[in-house]
Amino acid sequence: MTAPAAPHPEGLTPPDHHHPGPPTPRPTRKKTALWDRGRLLLLFVLAFLVVVWAAMADNPLLPFADSVRIQGVESQWLLWLAGLELLRQLHFLVSEHWSGYHRFWSERVFGATDRLLRMRFSDWTRFRLGRLFKIAAFLALSALIAAQILDTSPALALFQLLALEWTAMPLILQLAVAFFFIAFQFIGLFWLLSRGGVDTYYPDDIKTRFRDVWGQDHVVERIKENILFLEKPGEIERKGGYVPGGILLWGPPGTGKTLMAEAVAGETGRPYVFVDPGAFINMFMGIGILKVKSLFRKLRKLALRYGGVIVFFDEADALGNRGSLAQAGPGGPPGMGPAAFRACGCHGFSYLSDHTRLLLTREAMASAPDPGERPSRRSGFIMGGMNGGGGMGTLQALLTELSGLKKPRGLINRWGRRALGMRPKPPPQYRILVMMATNMPEALDEALLRPGRIDRIYKVGYPSKAGRIRTYRGYFDKVPHEITAEQLDKLATITPYATGATIKDLVNEALIIAVRAGRDVITWRDVIRAKQLKDLGPPEDVEYIERERHAVAVHEGCHAVVAFRVRQHMEIDLATIEKGSDYLGMVASIPPEDQFTRWRSEFEADILVSLASLAGERMFFDGDSSSGVSGDLEAATTLASFMEGFWGMGSTVSSYSTARRLEVGSPGGRGGAGKQSETPEAMLRKALADRIEDQLSELLERAEAILRDNRSAVLAIAHALETHKTLSGEDVEAVLEGRPGSAVDGRIYADPHFVNRLEQYHAAAVGAHHGHTAVQFTLPAARRDESTTAAATQHPR
């Protein structure tokens, strides 16, 4: 049993192909569309009406009916043609419904002629011959109609038609000029609005090389592969592959994404096109699409002229997103911020590690907005009207240009060769390397990130310690300095999340401080002062009253002492009681080395440091405590919640989120008759809250024990803070260990007589706190040459 023959493909066969066999006959003729069935009839009717109108124009007294009757006799050939066309359409209609009738005409009558033509001529040749026949028929019909109207021979009628057209040419030109004048007004307006936002740099304009990119060696090595593909594409294309043409660089701001794109252009010697992130945000709809089309038209020209081009889209999330995350702005929606960022108390996040701060920030962003805050109508209107992604159609136009079909070049190639029945020459290979940068990759559209548009995605993260050392060395080599290799290593350690931009800014700030002090060389002290200024910002020009200053100093001293005693995975960076924009004081810590895993003991140490403020204020101020511990308690509670409910670091190992989703009961909860009426979720929440409270209470007792054992150390740190206001991590350690520091001599705090004076001062400050009076005791002066055996002297105010 033989398989049925494959159906004959629709349409024309390419010139270099032949049908694999005779086409499979259809039982009936293929149905004709209504327009195809009646268009020739309509043409003949219109031609007859034109002849009738011409006769009436020559004799205004001739009525329409008489003109139709007269032309029906004189131009009856038009009616015969219309009748033949009507008969032909009736023939087609019968063939569409009667298979025997169709088979008779297609096989017995016209079959031989069709087979002969198919054997002698290809489909494309038959198509071209048919097109010439249609053109000749149209010209002949026009000549006959013109001859009837002008009362002359058909040959002369064609020439007279040309003469009439030449006579009417001034009017035609006037209408054309008016039309184009109106059209060019709109075209010119849109052309002017579509300019700007794109800067082109030619090879001689770019001096950046890969040697100028520091701290991102692993990313640079991967990008070099793409340069190799751009310069030698044949190696992979000959084997059937394609050259990756899209790179996305994502990571925190200032890590060197734009610098890498410039280095790529500098290394390859290709033009570099920089696209402004706001270039596609326009007032009128459609301008962004025109800009995208104009941009890629320019890129194709540059690619052909220079053998390749690099285009860089900075802040790609401004163009390539269709979500609402990027529209919220850098601050996020109202209310999305932890209390530690809003309350004017102890800066609760400053002494936590970066990983812990990230967790707390995510938790705060997941919470509901503050119901007391009303969103601004104006901001809501702007967010809704801008339509993320640069406007309607802009992103879609970009996606089309990145992976769409490239049409053949040139008018003659596209239209001239097609008019002659020839295939246009295929478009050339455009070597365009598209590079994008963003710090919000989650806001990019998935269609933009698919392979074929963006083939390589690289994270440009914070540089490692070795990368920071290399970056510091590169920027310090450009300015006069006295920074040693050991100090450079220390600086890289105490700036764990510094980017290339922040490192450059820190070195520049240190130079400004040195110049302001009348020196030409940067010293280590200038660098530390510059770091404190960049970390904390300029302090507010306010002065605490003495009892409040002492309370803030004791608060921060408790944080510093507990951090020094229990936290081994972090080092104290600085401590201050200078009031900032959103804090009264802070103790900031940094990791001494790059670490990518976190342990239960480290989170417990973080909670101990957070609870030290509450435990210390209760201990040093007779059970009293301030509102400044709110941020500390929020941080401690959030960490304890994660430890108990998610990370398996508490009294149970089950996951709270899974138990709540599956409604499997309350892990670790206490039984009771009163809980039978509660919902499973309420039971889970109550059980989790009980476990969190138990853990925090236990850690609070541990913090109190640590502070009792280190009471004199807390008062020593408080005194140093009241004296100097800001201490570096080295000075904090010097005070706690009783040795000289960079700015503080900690040996005085090992003297028992001086410690006794600190206790007396603290007692006077506590009395002033309870009585809301001035402190009736002078702050002891930390001078090594004073008599440490002298009795404490009270000085009334």
Fold and architecture overview:
55% of the residues lie in helices and 6% in strands. It has 797 residues and is of the alpha/beta class. The protein has 4 domains: 34-164, no CATH class; 198-358 and 431-459, Rossmann fold, CATH 3.40.50.300; 465-535, Helicase, Ruva Protein, domain 3 (Orthogonal Bundle), CATH 1.10.8; 545-668 and 678-732, Peptidase M41 (Methane Monooxygenase Hydroxylase, Chain G, domain 1), CATH 1.20.58. The strands form 2 sheets. Strands 1-3-4-6-2-7 form a 6-stranded mixed β-sheet, sandwiched between helices. It starts with 33 loop residues before the first helix and ends in a 26-residue tail after the last helix.
Number of helices: 30
Name the beta content range.
Answer: 5-15%
> Low-confidence parts, pLDDT < 50 over ≥5 residues?
1-20, 323-344, 365-390, 668-675, 785-797
Based on secondary structure, the structural category is: alpha/beta
Report the CATH topology name of the largest domain. Rossmann fold
The residue-averaged pLDDT reads 75
Strand order of the largest sheet: 1-3-4-6-2-7
Number of domains: 4
CATH structural class of the largest domain: Alpha Beta
The CATH architecture classification of the largest domain is 3-Layer(aba) Sandwich
Roughly what percent helix? 40-55%
Strands, count = 10
Instruction: Let me know the largest β-sheet.
Output: 6 strands, mixed
Radius of gyration, whole Å: 42 Å
Distance between the termini: 119 Å
Any idea what the CATH superfamily of the largest domain is called? Answer: P-loop containing nucleotide triphosphate hydrolases
Shape descriptor reads elongated
